[in-house]
Specification:
Blueprint: H1 2-22, H2 29-46, H3 54-79, H4 86-106, H5 110-135, H6 140-166, H7 178-215, H8 225-242, E1 246-253, H9 256-263, H10 265-281, E2 288-291, E3 296-302, H11 306-321, E4 333-339, H12 347-363, E5 369-371, H13 380-384, E6 389-390
Parallel strand pairs: 4-5
Antiparallel strand pairs: 1-3, 1-4, 2-3, 5-6
Helix pairs in contact: 1-2, 1-7, 2-3, 3-4, 3-5, 4-5, 5-6, 6-7, 9-10
EC number: 2.7.7.65
GO molecular function, one term: diguanylate cyclase activity
Organism: Janthinobacterium violaceinigrum
Length: about 400
């Protein structure tokens, strides 16, 4: 028990340091750190029975222990993005204190005290099992954490039922015996394992956040160059296998510098985020959009013939002409369209041709769409009708 107390204290420090560094990214760490600290305090209070009145130390230790376990439940709820069940937490804590006090001071009955305590604590663990089952990612980290929490819930419930059916002697930890020894060993071991389990899912969440940071633009939440390069690599593999068309849009805001100069960079950032949202809303789920720095966006559309890409580009251009609810300054875009010429062509060549079409749209008056003529042959009838160049 002493070793478990020391390890819980060390894990509390570790988790608190992680909380200080990633409190905005991973929620619930602070509650778990505080819960571990309360478990340490409960262990110390149990050890004061020789100094303080035994009834007082036991009542205080049980109350602190339940409070610590309950904080882990609140932390798990926050981790999965739910509002902490503070009322339920306070209700269970109050019932545990009242039940322990009643069966300890008013009508001393060890078996009933253990039963009430175990069943109430079981609710905390059962709630966390439910959270992992419903909201946990289908990943080893969630399976590991959920299995540990389920095991702890079963052990606590079994102790409560055993105390109710067979009396307090069967679960008295101060009496040598196989059931009590097993429970004590499991309880001490699980106190550490549950913390490790939560740290496992928290580390998994942090890994996903860091990976997203490395592949996404923090302002617009679309892909950055690295993320776009990864997406292109996947799609070029599909192109080699299935020979499906791969089309790219190069999009640039017109006169964006004037927006920054007139309204400030904060408004300019909001405009960029709005444009990214509009572009994403016009795309299919299989398409991807990236910000290539400044006011330039790139869209990759697999299995999209260039002629069909024209409709997507025109929809983006038209949506930006509509008034926005946020009251942001109006903006227009120029768009260049290019299609993957062959599987041998690289991303830089494709981007270069799309940019060439974009620059042509800029030269011809902006707020328009231009095709890269080298990427494909446009039907002369459609070209004569003006469909290959949209003003």
């Amino acid at each position: 028990m002493l070793m478990t107390t020391l390890m819980c204290g060390a894990m509390s420090i570790v988790m608190f340091s992680v909380y200080r560094s990633f409190r905005r990214e991973v929620h619930g760490l602070g509650h778990w750190a505080a819960g571990l600290l309360l478990l340490v305090c409960a262990s110390l209070l149990f050890g004061t029975r020789e100094v303080l009145p035994p009834a007082l130390s036991m009542l205080a230790a049980n109350a602190v222990l339940v409070a610590g376990i309950g904080l882990s439940m609140l932390g798990t709820e926050k981790f999965y993005g739910l509002a902490p069940s503070r009322r339920a937490y306070l209700l269970i804590l109050s019932l545990a204190i009242a039940g322990s006090g009643w069966w300890l001071l008013v009508r001393p009955d060890f078996s009933m005290r253990v039963t009430v305590f175990s069943l109430l604590v079981f609710l905390f663990y059962a709630r966390q099992v439910q959270l992992v089952w419903r909201y946990g990612e289908r990943h080893f980290s969630s399976f590991f954490f959920g299995a540990l929490m389920l095991l702890q819930a079963v052990v606590v419930l079994a102790r409560g039922v055993s105390a109710l059916l067979h009396g307090g002697a069967s679960v008295d930890l101060t009496v040598a015996g196989t059931p009590a020894g097993i429970y004590l060993a499991v309880a001490n071991f699980m106190a550490l394992l549950l913390t490790v389990g939560f740290m496992t899912v928290a580390t998994r969440r942090l890994q996903q956040i860091l990976e997203r940071r490395s592949t996404h633009d923090p302002l617009t939440q679309v892909l950055n160059r690295r993320g776009f390069g990864d997406a292109y690599a996947r799609e070029i593999d599909n192109l080699r296998r299935h020979r499906l068309p791969l089309t790219l849009l190069s999009i640039d805001l017109d006169y964006f510098k004037l927006i920054n100069d007139r309204h400030g960079h904060a408004v300019g950032d909001q405009v960029l985020a709005h444009v990214a949202t509009v572009i994403g809303g016009a795309l299919r789920e299989s398409d991807c959009v990236a910000r290539f720095g400044g006011e330039e966006f790139v869209v990759l559309m697999p299995d999209m013939p260039p002629q069909n890409a024209l409709g997507v580009a025109e929809r983006i251009r038209a949506l930006l002409h509509e008034p926005n609810q946020a009251g942001l300054p109006a903006c227009t875009v120029s768009i260049g369209v290019a299609c993957q010429a062959s599987v041998m062509e690289g991303l830089e060549e494709l981007l270069s041709r799309a940019d060439a079409a974009l620059y042509l749209a800029k030269e011809r008056g902006r707020d328009r769409i231009e095709f890269d003529a080298a990427a494909f042959t446009v039907d002369r009838t459609r070209s004569a009708a003006g469909i290959d160049t949209v003003r």
